[in-house]
Amino acid sequence: MGKRVSSKSFRNLIFLFLLILQTCPNLTKAGSIVSSLPGFQGPLPFELETGYIGVGESEDVQLFYYFIKSESNPETDPLLLWLTGGPGCTSFCSVAYEIGPIKFEPFLYDGTLPKLILNPYSWTKVASIIFVDQPVGTGFSYAKTAKASQSTTSKNSDQLYEFLKKWLIDHPEFISNPFYVGGNSYGGVMVPIVSQLISNGNEVEVEPIINLKGYMVGNPGTGNGNYAVPHAHGLGLISNELYQSLKDSCKGEYQRIDPNNALCLQHMQTYDQLLSGVNPPHILERSCPFASPGPTKKFGEKIPTIEIYSQKVQELRIQERTPIKCRMDGYKLAYHWSNNKNVQEALHIREGSIGEWVRCNLSLSFTDDVDNVVPYHANLSIKGYRSLVYSGDHDMIVPHLETQAWIKSLNYQIIDDWRQWIVEDQVAGYT
């Protein structure tokens, strides 16, 4: 029998291996630097890296990522893993529409490649961010086998933890940086689970040790869908009378309604009719057709595909640059940009790895096998990790009432009164 290696000696070997990688970073680099992007004028004023990391059995899942280095002090600034919602919405949503350094010029598609401009409010001004296309089948991430294309919340969480460990081994210069996990909407389900996996791994000294400091979630899903009705009432979308009838007949259960409860079903039908013309994620914005990856039925109507939309644009022969009035029209720009051959070459996309790129893949083979993530929040809180939770008050998909309710269930001690949140001398919200 061979001689056993002590855990201390093993950690020293790992450290030596990481040191070798740091001094010879090109030995295993999974990513490639992108110095310019089609549609953006001139070289990029920030450092962008894209690439794939194989995870799962035989690395049959290839997760694609965009990594943007902090524009301030990347040696010491926080490192953030950002998980976009869906499930199935590409991380490019966050890069170009939310917290990343670029965004599209807000003009309707006119047949030419959409133009990119800088976002002055990018979070990459103060942090380095890894944006991952997850779960498998999202964005440019792909599976090598049919079996690998099937995923669950639990499996995706394990694969993200594996991804992160491999990414840090590939980028050892970031191992000591303060690390956070962040995400919004359904990403808010993934964030506490992945944070818990990191914490568990650190406790048993799984290498590399990740310098986890905390996590952040925006309009985060938790698995409790019973707050949409009271939220709609609070926003004045339904009458006091209907709200009272819903409360009496449904007994507070609006998500899994007893099919034998005819009165509750009747009131819910009225509720659905009243909200049918409202844009659920942003109730004050226009309700516009969703750019889906294929013909899909919703409210009994066929939703236009991006191809049909493009044909209509060409038929109209738009001569002047028309400002975008609908958020969905802005999202459609990403289809024309990301499916461009020159763009995919610039991003180092593996040819033939996916078919058409779609912003949100509605046909994922994905199962949500986690009913409630609040216990993860509670456990991370007990362990002393910091958390930032924020919600918009016009979101019907994840109402802020739901967020407030699960936070209250954690029994935190209140150390600051409910007060205004001020930005540039204006009330921007409440905390």
TrEMBL record:
GO terms for biological process: proteolysis; secondary metabolic process. It comes from the Eukaryota. SUPFAM superfamilies: alpha/beta-Hydrolases. Keywords: Signal. Residues 1-30 form the signal peptide. Belongs to the peptidase S10 family. This is OLC1v1016893C1. It comes from Oldenlandia corymbosa var. corymbosa.
